[in-house]
Write a structure and sequence with these properties.
The complex is a heterodimer of chains A (328) and B (279).
Chain A: H1 3-23, H2 31-39, H3 44-78, H4 90-103, H5 106-109, H6 113-133, H7 139-163, H8 173-178, H9 186-204, H10 207-213, H11 217-222, H12 227-249, H13 255-263, H14 271-296, H15 304-322, H16 324-327
Helix pairs in contact in A: 1-3, 1-14, 2-3, 3-9, 3-12, 3-13, 3-14, 4-6, 4-7, 4-12, 6-7, 6-12, 9-12, 10-14, 13-14, 13-15
Chain B: H1 3-24, E1 34-36, H2 39-48, E2 54-58, H3 70-74, E3 78-79, H4 83-88, E4 93-97, H5 102-110, E5 115-118, H6 124-138, H7 141-158, E6 167-172, E7 176-178, H8 183-190, E8 194-195, E9 205-207, H9 210-216, E10 220-222, H10 240-243, H11 263-278
Parallel strand pairs in B: 1-2, 1-4, 2-3, 4-5, 6-8, 6-10
Antiparallel strand pairs in B: 6-7, 7-9
The chains are: A mainly alpha (328), B alpha/beta (279).
């Protein structure tokens, strides 16, 4: 499929889901009234549209784009379709950073400490994964390293939340494990957006280098790709995007796995084309999941990660089956 | 069966089983070594027990954020709801709540200790019945009757004059709203407010989406007090859409938690806010 056609299709899908996200909600506002209230002051309806639904929908776009792009970049660099921030423990380490910032009171004193701490957590685990997996990222090492890091970060997150004097904190382990966009406001969006934008700029520029890398490291080096710099850029970009997304929405798994997997055949397996397509596809997937949680159990705050895992885990199993020879 | 009917039947079953349990157990002599393991039975026992009769209360009742009688509770040693520590106090009566871990309660019963379980009060009327129940268990019926009479007189003195009843919503962490058929809902009604959540079909307690609350546009929003540390559950209370509504200055603090005469303090504060709203 030619690039402009694919991107236009993904963009219109995301647009349609964004509209659905704005129009669907427990308050049951008629679509016409809802859109009018968005542009014109209509009292309580405008408050619902501008302060509750709009930030939630926009945050869904940003979080999804971050996870999709982060997954595509990791897979491009490691040349392994199983690499994904959630599976490799990058997201859960980001969650640990965010939880530490919140529970130490750092985030209350200095708001940007929240995404910064999540970024630090994501960067540390991202660097650890790349070190452990080595340059080619063989599946077995990659997955084992991911399991170990996820388990450690998850356990430490639970520990920190259980130690908190706040009676609600321990119940939030579920949020940090599965993610949700419920009741997020513009303050969360403005907090995360700069980091996501910086990460996106960094990762989207890596397309040509990742294309060259598909020919092997030596070939890429002779084509002028500086491998160390590429590695640092991938870690920094993924950490910024996934860290910021996790800091405000919790850990939403499998988006970075499913979206690049579905889109790869459509872009001729070229990382440079997969990156922007995965960002759009990720946005669409998270928006769809967020609309679904509101339709299925509107008053229970069903977690996003439940739906993405229902779609993602079978894809993951299929990928393991397909690569089982390499797993040895 | 509607949720409301189910709740009625459940409340009736609870009440009648409590009555049966009490009728079956002959209260021969007043117990001399009483240990309470539940925040609400702690406070009822603190109010009613004879000097020296109550040995220990739960640690929770020593925390002023949840207990209206933290100071009095601190004069007694605390227990942490563990069967072992309670058993070692050699009590002849243990007061527990229906949310006290069943394993702990049955363990104490197996060890031969009399355990009495009180359901949490879901209405102002259950404040009266809880006072009487604990009074009977402690052999302090006269004191309990006097306290019920005082409660009734104070409540009558606080009754709002006829007139406009503004809408208020009880909205807590995680978007949990209390409807009219709860203790908090009855406190709100006694202070002269209509319950805004009732319009959204909430009768007991329910999670009410923020956008539904904003659409209801209540005249006043009463929220829970902030807990130490931080949680995402409480972040909804700082949401800009909620901040745009009129917020109560007094949080739902320790006076709201248990069905004791302390609820009157909450009624009084809230009545003051209603009068301020009218002006």
């Amino acid at each position: 499929m030619p690039a402009p056609a694919l991107n236009a299709a993904l963009l219109s899908l995301t647009g349609a889901l964004l509209l659905a996200s704005l129009l669907i909600g427990p308050a049951g506002i008629a679509p016409g009234t809802a859109l009018l209230a968005l542009v014109q002051d209509q009292g309580a309806t405008t408050l619902v549209m501008r302060e509750i639904r709009l930030p939630r929908a926009l945050l869904g776009v940003c979080v999804g784009a971050s996870l999709g792009l982060g997954g595509a970049a990791m897979q491009g660099y490691l040349r392994n379709p199983l690499a994904e921030p959630g599976l490799l423990g990058v997201s859960s380490s980001a969650a640990l950073g965010a939880v530490l910032a919140i529970q130490t009171g750092l985030a209350a004193a200095f708001a940007p400490a929240l995404p910064l701490a999540a970024l630090a957590g994501a960067a540390l685990s991202g660097a650890a994964i790349l070190l452990l997996a080595g340059p080619r990222g063989p599946s077995l090492t990659l997955i084992l390293a991911g399991i170990a890091i996820s388990a450690l970060a998850g356990a430490l997150t639970s520990l920190v939340l259980n130690l908190s004097p706040n009676p609600f904190a321990a119940t939030e382990i579920v949020f940090w494990m599965l993610g949700s966009l419920a009741d997020r406001s513009f303050s969360h969006l403005w907090l995360a957006l700069p980091f996501m934008a910086a990460g996106a700029l960094l990762l989207l520029r890596l397309g040509p280098a990742l294309d060259a890398l598909t020919l092997g490291e030596d070939a890429a080096a002779t084509m002028g790709v500086r491998l160390l710099r590429l590695r640092l850029s991938v870690v920094a970009g993924v950490a910024a995007m996934v860290g910021a997304a996790t800091a405000v929405a919790g850990t939403v798994g499998f988006v970075g796995l499913v979206v690049p997997h579905l889109l790869r055949p459509l872009v001729g397996a070229r990382p440079s084309r997969l990156l922007p397509a995965s960002a759009l596809g990720g946005a669409a997937m998270v928006l769809a999941a967020d609309v679904a949680v509101r339709l299925i159990l509107p008053e229970r705050d069903l977690k996003l990660g439940v739906l993405t895992a229902l779609v993602g885990a079978p894809v993951f199993l299929h990928l393991i089956y397909a690569t089982r020879r390499r797993l040895g | 069966m509607t949720a409301r009917a189910a709740r009625r039947i459940w409340a009736w079953l609870r009440a009648s089983s409590a009555a049966l349990a009490l009728a079956a157990a002959p209260v021969a002599a007043a117990p001399e070594r009483v240990v309470s393991m539940n925040l609400c039975t702690d406070q009822l026992a603190l109010m009613l027990a004879a000097p020296g009769q109550l040995l220990s209360v739960s640690a929770l009742s020593q925390d002023p954020r949840s207990s209206a009688m933290a100071e009095a509770a601190r004069r007694l040693p605390a227990n942490h709801g563990r069967a072992e520590e309670v058993f070692l106090m050699r009590p002849d009566l243990v007061l527990a709540g229906s949310y006290t871990t069943p394993a702990t309660r049955s363990m104490l019963s197996r060890l031969g200790i009399r355990v009495e379980t009180l359901p949490p009060a879901a209405s102002l009327d259950e404040v009266r019945s809880n006072l009487r129940t604990v009074g009977r268990l402690l052999g302090r019926e006269v004191e309990a009757e006097a306290m019920v009479a005082e409660f009734d007189a104070d409540l009558a003195a606080l009754a709002p004059a006829e007139g406009e009843r503004p809408d208020a919503a009880l909205y807590q962490a995680q978007g949990y709203a209390s409807g009219p058929e709860t203790l908090a809902g009855e406190i709100l009604a006694a202070a002269g407010f209509d319950n805004a959540a009732a319009a959204a079909g909430v009768s007991g307690g329910a999670f009410l989406p923020l956008e539904v609350l904003v659409t209801l546009a209540p005249d006043l929003v009463v929220s829970g007090g902030r807990q130490p540390g931080a949680s995402r559950a409480e972040e909804v209370l700082d949401h800009p859409a909620l901040r745009a509504l009129h917020r109560s200055e007094a949080p739902m603090g320790s006076d709201w938690v248990c069905g004791t005469p302390h609820v009157l303090a909450a009624v009084e504060r809230l009545s003051g806010e209603r009068r301020a709203l009218a002006h």
